């Protein structure tokens, strides 16, 4: 298993190109199941989760090619990928494929919308809480799907097709909103979604579906209107830039000091994060090219956060922010409201010398003068990168084990950081 070795203490200076967003690429790829035409996606990041979803889509009969060639011939990153679901060969998504990544469960929506049935294993993914799929299933039921759960599989049936409906999500859910958008655009009649997720990735999916011929209005607000259409066609759509990756590197610079341009980062996707980081003492300049972040010598100011759905502070940056706060000059409080078990990084950060106590869903972080390098273990995707951030500031050597978690969501992490002066390398095997 690969490890990442970091010798801490270097400032970061230079340019970090921000990749296409994993969390946007995945639902866009799944949308290719809705049409027998080709959906072309630009700026697709080269990540383990993308490769896994390619395998899952392949199981259903989706053919794909990268930059016009088969994928293994092409070492390029942030690629253009063509997906064609000319024929759906099976509507069954087996446990072996779906258990590796939660988002793969979302195939249930386009399959039932296009084929009138689907049989999808209950999902897996990061171990950050129970993460049920009840809202996704309630939404599909509202559109006329019959749902049965047997032997770990969800059997969804709508033999006469889906019909539009008004549906209110009991809680804001990104995956629930994605699946309802995909299902409702092929339903007969109109659908109104209330309490929908407003994340930029939802807007990216709605724009993709509209480019394919759907009639969706209001994406990016809590109320979305969808007028069902007979069928969808192909389209060409760009995956938006990864706000979580950009926020992560901004926090790395806040931690180490230095001056970095986050090329192609979108400030409008990161408003609450940038506001918070500027309170910690990070200098932030927005430009046409992206976001420039700098910190020179000043103390890190302790700052409290609470995670919230967009436009609030994202749960996917909570662990990284905690990494940063371990070196703040004073005490900060970090409250997680989205997932109930997203604090596995706490004990690993403690190995580096961090002082963190946990009561319920709030972590109290008492900043320390210095962190000391140690062996740590990546436990989930975002937690693992918080250890990298801490390692960049720790004295001596930090080894992050189980980096396959990082490979799920961060494209060329070591290269991007070492190009800016970090001492970081991957050790294979
Ligand atoms: C997506 C992101 C993930 C991010 C999360 C919250 C992708 C691929 N993943 O995950 O990185 O951390 O949004 O921003 O885009 N819930 C239910 N029942 C459901 C669905 C959700 O109870 O049927 C709960 C979840 O357990 C969680 C909350 O709702 O507590 C929000 O989850 P959701 O927004 O659905 O997360 P994902 O779409 O899985």
UniProtKB/TrEMBL annotation:
Q: Domain (Enolpyruvate transferase): give its ranges.
A: 8-417
**One Pfam family, short name please?**
EPSP_synthase
Q: What are the protein's GO molecular function terms?
A: UDP-N-acetylglucosamine 1-carboxyvinyltransferase activity
In which pathway is this protein known to take part? Cell wall biogenesis; peptidoglycan biosynthesis
Enzymatic class: transferase
Query: Where is the PTM 2-(S-cysteinyl)pyruvic acid O-phosphothioketal found along the chain?
Result: 126
Enumerate the active-site residues.
Answer: 126 (proton donor)
Q: What is this protein called?
A: UDP-N-acetylglucosamine 1-carboxyvinyltransferase
